[in-house]
Design brief:
The protein is of the alpha/beta class and 407 residues long. It has two domains: 339 residues, Metal-dependent hydrolases (TIM Barrel), CATH 3.20.20; 40 residues. It has 14 helices and ten strands. Strands 1, 2, 3, 4, 5 and 6 form a six-stranded parallel β-sheet that branches. β3, α5 and β4 form a beta-alpha-beta unit. α10 runs antiparallel to α11. Keywords: Dipeptidase, Hydrolase, Protease, Signal.
Length: 407
């Protein structure tokens, strides 16, 4: 998910850093680097369009709030994943659809340009079988996804254009209901369609026909029910958590988790703190952050000077109103271990929501990813299980979508 912070904002406070992943046992680090590791929800494309920001340079989570770049991916052992074309929900009007369409197409172009500008380090992946050889060549794997189908407007046929661009996973809704589906977090707190809309059902048919994986994250429970009943291929939750651990609308209950697995689907575990645990209210911080977001929305084109000003304001907010009740790595693992207990290692993966709000105390950016591998091994999951969780399961779902094309 994105919270609209154009400076690549992950909602992190400047708190003391936990034990570095680089201090883990060498055998854990070596195994982690050997594994094929994919994250199913990278919001990092928002960083690509920032002034004076390069994916090839190492940045700092406590300085510019970004969490993913090439040097950190190498150090943290992240081979790649699904790079999201995220579009915020706007008005359901002809003008709103057109604006969102143009934005989404340009964001997709930014992802393709990242790959084209550095072919020695990045490669576009279009099929499940592409990931392993790309990683073996020492390059980062770039699958493309859409978070929020809103930019398609009422023209489901536009999905073909995004497929041709490289998109292989599509989520139906985001923070609010749209023309395709109900959101789990719509401000009205009332359903609009009670699941997928008629247009949403048509979109699902086209996704199945093209071989695109349906993503139910951010959509309501009833949308997931519809997807499980209607999709001819398995469903993915690209970045979600477990209601049994923390009862939040963005999370999934155990019965639906089992239904997802029964249809071959996978839940990719989210590291967005507000969905991992209840936090104590921090009204002063919320007010200050709200004002910061508002100033960004009204600020026009982002310049280097404007971004520096916003970063300074953000750091001042962190100093004056620090987050003292943040979710931790243990909270993140509680959700993952619960999902593993309920549906097993064939139906769980990782989609931490980097650069879109993800990150917890003890796992602030992708440098800390080996901690997940260590925690899974300590929980007595085998190397084969850990490989499934890191990449095998999401690739299996993608392969199933490919095999089901045209149905």
């Amino acid at each position: 998910m994105r919270v609209g912070l154009m400076m690549g904002a992950a909602l992190i406070a400047l708190l003391p850093v936990a034990v570095s992943a680089q201090e883990l046992p060498k055998k854990v680090q070596q195994l982690h680097q050997k594994l094929l590791t994919l994250d199913s929800h990278l919001d990092t494309p928002a960083s690509l369009d920032l002034p004076d920001w390069s994916i090839d340079e190492e940045h700092g989570v406590h300085s510019d709030y970004t969490q993913v770049d090439l040097p950190r991916m190498k150090k943290g052992g992240l081979d790649g994943g699904f790079w999201a074309i995220y579009t915020g929900q706007g008005p359901l009007t002809v003008e709103g659809f057109a604006k969102a369409r143009d934005f989404a197409l340009m964001r997709g172009v930014s992802i393709r340009e990242m790959v084209a500008a550095d072919p020695a380090n990045f490669a576009l992946a279009l099929e499940a079988k592409d990931a392993a050889p790309i990683a073996a060549a020492g390059k980062r794997v770039v699958y493309m996804s859409i978070e929020n189908a809103y930019p398609l407007g009422e023209d489901v046929g536009l999905l073909q254009t995004f497929y041709d661009m490289g998109v292989r996973v599509v989520g139906f809704a985001h923070f609010a209901h749209n023309q395709f589906a109900d959101s789990s977090t719509d401000p009205s707190k009332k359903p609009r369609y009670g699941g997928l809309s008629p247009l949403g059902k048509q979109l699902l048919k086209d996704m199945n026909r093209l071989g695109i994986v349906p993503d139910a994250s951010h959509s309501s429970d009833q949308v997931l029910d519809d997807l499980l009943a209607l999709s001819t291929t398995p469903v993915l939750l690209t970045h979600s958590g477990c209601k049994a651990v923390y009862d939040h609308p963005r999370n999934i209950d155990d019965d639906r988790l089992k239904a997802l697995a029964a249809k071959g689907g996978v839940i990719q575990m989210n590291a967005y703190g507000a969905y991992l645990k209840a936090a104590k209210p921090n009204p002063e911080r919320q007010k200050a952050m709200g004002a910061l977001f508002a100033s960004m929305r009204d600020g026009g084109k982002m310049t280097a000077e404007k971004r520096a000003e916003l970063l300074a304001k953000r750091q001042e907010i962190d100093r004056l109103y620090p987050e003292t009740d943040r979710a931790t790595f243990d909270d993140f693992m509680a959700h993952m271990l619960h999902a593993l207990k309920v549906v097993g290692p064939d139906h769980v993966g990782i989609g931490a929501d980097w650069d879109g709000g993800g990150g917890v105390v003890g796992m602030e950016d992708v440098l800390d990813l080996p901690r997940i591998t260590e925690a899974l091994l300590k929980a007595d999951y085998s190397e084969a299980d850990v490989q499934k969780i890191w990449a095998g399961n999401v690739l299996r779902v993608l392969a199933a979508a490919e095999a089901g094309k045209g149905t």
